[in-house]
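fwd from M.: "can u put these together and see what the complex looks like"

so here's what she sent:
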Amino acid sequence: MPDSIVRVLDIAIGGLLTGGIYALIAMGLSLQYGVARVLNIAHGEFIMLGAFTTFTLYTVFGINPLLSLVIIGPIIFIIGFLLHRTLFTRLRISAPNPDAYAASSMLATFGLLFIIQNLALLGWGADLRSYSYLNFGVNLGGAIFAANRLVTLGFAIGIGLGFYIFLVRSRIGKAIRAAAQDPETAGLMGVNINLVLAICFALGAVMAGLAGTLLSMRFPITPTMGLNYTIIAIIIVVLGGLGSIPGSFIGGFILGIIGTIVNYIEPSLSLAAYYFIFMLLLLVRPKGIFGK
Amino acid sequence: MDITAFTSRKFLIPGVITLVLLIALVTLPLYSSLYMVILVTAILMYTILTVSWALFSGPSGYLSLASAAFFGIGIYTSAMLLPNTGVVLPLLVVVALGGVISFIVALLVGFLTLRLRGIYFAIFTFGLVELIKQVLIYYEINITGTRGRFIVLVENEHIFWIMLALFILLMLTTYFLRHSKFGLALQSIGENEEAAAHRGINVTMVKVITFAISAFFMGAAGAVIATKWTYIDPYIAFNALFSFLPILMAIFGGIGQIYGPVIGSVVFAYLEETLLTKFPYYYMLTFGIVLVGVILFLPGGLAGLIQRLWRRRLRGQHANT
């Protein structure tokens, strides 16, 4: 194959690989913000928790990182559920209007960010950590990719689709979508709003935690890694349209590919490019590409 | 205005207290240790950031996360105009310039973004800090070929007095804004923007100008404190924490009263200066717990609590008579 085609393929697949994890993280935030109305600045901290738990399980107990997915999911679900039942439900009930709740809950998540991050710093220390798992090359049409990147992409897409099907097909998923459209009316129709919102928040945290597990297979991790991913997730959620789950999924891939292209041309500008696109989007089309 | 209004008890006691505090502050370097001067300078810096954040975001209800951007612009103004080698401009000129540049940037940003409602505005202003930081990193590495910059050394007393002057100017501005038609207009925008617009208030103008005034003080404070830090790079200058801390301090103190943000920032800045270097993780952990606690249990902040207790006391007195 000619050199240029290999290069294009390289960028395209690299973008999809990054995008897969982005999509997962953004879907989680979309559930939390789009439905539960909590703009969770501590979203990335759940990614970090997932990553560090996987790291500890693998290096100390020798548990396969892919198996940790099944262990970490339920634990983070419980943490997220309890957080919403105690903290956010109380804030929601005492807030005079939805705007006030959006502001107070966002500020509370800043507090959560400080709490979780510093507990992790106390527990795990500030060093970069990494482990080696499935670290060998796989040849895909001339370009070589590490096996763990392909596995994480597969799992990211699998988990993302799984959640999507759950939302579309299951009874709870229906209640969640009803609550997203109109919490008041959904409540009148017999949906237990507080329960549904808590489940949404917890599911969003689970997606972040699982993304963290996948990330830890590929990248070094540190307790302060969370905020960058939160920002990327916020950008994607705005890109895809606030509250639109498929929008977040596709937006994740779009941002992944854009990031890889910019990274290829001028690596030091890739973050600047993210913000630039994001701010431009907010000004031109704040509803997002897929927003109604 | 009736002169007796100022001699009445309502004005006399707070007036005397303010005057005594002012004299004590202005003469601080004459009687206290250097450590104390540096500590109070840091506290004043946080107070300026917090009060100027509350000046705009308090009444208008727009949650701005751009404080770090304006603060950083001020810091870089200092860094570029007051290098530790070569010709330097007078410090006061640089401080004023830092404020004015922040003011102008805030005007531009304000006109662009203040039509974004609610959470979009918060997200945008947060992105602004990161965008400026990333572009500056790119510029410094690829065009000037440096990462950080050294700044000329200034005497601690001078830094302190300039910071104090800024603080007093800010408090006067806040006071007069609150008691003017302009402040009332801003308040009404926070309560119901559409109604304010129908009432004939030029909402965009009021919002943008207040936003820019608050940015002026943040930029000026950044320009002053940069001379104290002597070395800066984009990560130090545009640290997102400078957007968050003022908000936490303001909320802890309570944004309903003019003195709320002052109390909040004095308490937290003092804790930060004494604890941060020794127990950084515990300090930030406590910070998070207090923040969540205040949001949950003290929606009016410390000032709100003080007011509630005060009212209860007054009610108690009336009940006794």
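replying to her w this: The first strand of chain B starts at residue 149 and ends at 150.
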